[in-house]
Amino acid sequence: MAALVAGALRAEIPQPPVCERLQLLIAPQQARLAGTAGPQWVEGLARHSGLQLHVRQPDDDAVVSFASGVQDLWLGSSLEMLQQTGGHPLQPPLWQEQYWLWFRAGELTDVQQLPVLSGMRGGYWPEQLEQGQLATLAVHVGLDNLRVQAGPAAALQAVLDGDIDFFMSDSETLAVIDAVNDTEALEALAQPLLVRPYYLALSNNSACKDKAVIGLLEAAIIKVQEQE
Q1: Is the pLDDT of residue 206 over 90?
Q2: On the chain, which terminus has fewer CB atoms closer than 10 Å, C or N?
Q3: Under 8 Å CB-to-CB from 126, ≥6 apart: which residues?
Q4: How many angstroms separate the CA atoms of 127 and 100, rounded?
Q5: How far is 156 from 6, CA to CA, in rounded Å?
Q6: What does the alpha-carbon distance between residue 70 and residue 24 come to, in Å, rounded to a whole number?
Q7: What is the value of pTM for the model shown?
């Protein structure tokens, strides 16, 4: 009888969560996570999941420490990073980047159709090279045909001057292009060249990788997105 009572008492005692504190890395060089945006994401995820998320500053060993499970979460992981580290992408993606090709207005016979880029001169700026965006273009045009520009505004002007035929922009630079392109001298393809998702990734070797934690974090992602 005493054993039964003791067992019943133990069953009524709430069990602590599998992981009360997770180590989180914020992806470096992610424009959407710069400034206060990254901490705001962390705060929202922690609040809605009920988990403690401890932010660690990325260093030269960040990829190795995440892949090995020393760091549990990677905020803003690209598909390339997932492949490199074997991380588990939590759904839905945090956001998606759309990459557009811009040409001088009237140069395209059909904005619905991707032209053959192999014989054209493209432009890019240093940040695109640093962030690995040129891998997208490399599928369609040789890198030898790409010319470096100071930035999106300079690339736009180079197209108008005839120095290059096109350039690619992501969602973050559309506002810059719209501000300069007030005469609609440029036009983009009707569809983005590529759509790339970015995730909150959980290390496959994390001690906190279980269905309960994944469920809490995925529900929190949706809550944060609904409040944006």
Answers
A1: yes
A2: N
A3: 148
A4: 16
A5: 75
A6: 10
A7: 0.76
Q: To which residue do tokens 């705001």 refer?
A: 40
Sign of CA dihedral 184, 189, 194, 197: positive
Question: d(Cα 87, Cα 217) in Å, to the nearest integer?
Answer: 15
**CA 106 to CA 104: how far, in whole Å?**
6
Pairing of strands 21-26, 73-77: parallel
Integer CA distances (angstroms), 197 to 41, 82, 200, in order: 16, 11, 10
DSSP β-ladder status, 166-169 and 95-104:
antiparallel
Decide if pLDDT at 22 tops 60. yes
Please answer whether residues 102 and 169 qualify as being in contact, where contact means their C-beta atoms are separated by less than 8 angstroms. Answer: yes
- Whether the CB-CB separation of 123 and 164 falls below 8 Å is answered with yes
